[in-house]
Amino acid sequence: MFMARILVIEDEAAIRRVLVKILTEENDAYQVEEAENGAEGLEKLKKQEYDLVLCDIKMPKMDGVEVLEAGRKSKPETPFIMISGHGDLDTAVQTMRMGAFDYISKPPDLNRLLTTVRNALDRKELVAENRILKKKVSKNFQMVGESDEIHGIKEMIDKVAPTDARVLITGSNGTGKELVAHWIHQKSPRSSAPFVEVNCAAIPSELIESELFGHVKGAFTSAVKDRAGKFEAANKGTLFLDEIGDMSLSAQAKVLRALQESKVSRVGSDKDIKVDVRVVAATNKDLQKEISEGKFREDLYHRLAVILIRVPSLNDRREDIPLLIEHFSGKIAEEQGTAPKGFTEKAIKLLQDYDWTGNVRELRNVVERLVILGGKEVSEEDVRLFASK
């Protein structure tokens, strides 16, 4: 059972006792501690981890506003519920602007107090779960490597991510263009908003416009109801257009308009919908060649390629292969619930000498095959037997 630690900071002993009594009688999973003044409460907050703080606003020496301000600096994820007297309403509202979760009035109403406490604890638990999930997502989209090429990409991402500049990522299939797009999003101010991915090569040309911009009921035979597109789904976040070189010219024209005017219209509708979307695109094609052949719009290219990031092939960064083998071996072991399997130096050297036409994606598949079929430690012989193409 989750044991919630709650700190009550209140200088009036009678009210403090009431608060403690209400909380402990309501739920035996509430572990409640007390502080008689702001300074004592702040000292406890610095030394201990609390899931919630109830803090009076009017206290001698150090008032609740000062405690909130200092507490938010040292423990920004700990929610505060402020306790306000009759004349403290304006100050209570001010504390919410400073980051307090909510406030309750004296004398505390039983139902209001318990509801607010439950909501604050639920919110903290949700924030903690989201943080864990983001770490897991970040780990899944980790860029592994210490080569100059990978360091250059990481430095570029660090510079570009905080901005809203559009990015065009180029590179062969399997090099990790999607990882670069995820990293840009995760390191950006939009990281808490959606990351929406569209594989332009996987969607038939007659459906790509509906996929991107949505449609209204009756726009075409199978449009049985209104449907939002990916631009709307990615509002306030990032839209990743993978393999944009495969997009039809008519869809390219609509994407260009969306980028120019920050608005879209659903298929079958003339109503404009405002969108706030950062577009990151990727391609394995030579778009300059596509432009010269009339297959890609030059004006769209210049809109997308504000920042260009080229992801190198695995053959161009062979020094990263030992790190990638270790990374994939650990991930595969985690997925299968087994201990990571080691690779001998000769096995790694042999893998470094391979021609990796399928790039990192191919290496990952080969490592998984070797982990499953190889011995306790993957040997050079295992590589010769099981990693042949």
SSE arrangement:
Blueprint: E1 4-9, H1 13-26, E2 30-35, H2 38-47, E3 52-56, H3 64-74, E4 80-84, H4 89-97, E5 102-105, H5 110-140, H6 148-160, E6 167-170, H7 177-186, E7 195-199, H8 205-213, E8 214-215, E9 227-228, H9 230-233, E10 238-242, H10 249-261, E11 263-264, E12 273-274, E13 278-283, H11 287-292, H12 298-304, E14 307-310, H13 321-336, E15 342-343, H14 345-352, H15 359-373, E16 377-378, H16 380-386
Parallel strand pairs: 1-2, 1-3, 3-4, 4-5, 6-13, 6-14, 7-10, 10-13, 15-16
Antiparallel strand pairs: 8-9, 11-12
Helix pairs in contact: 2-3, 8-10, 13-15, 14-16
In short:
By secondary structure, the protein is of the alpha/beta class.
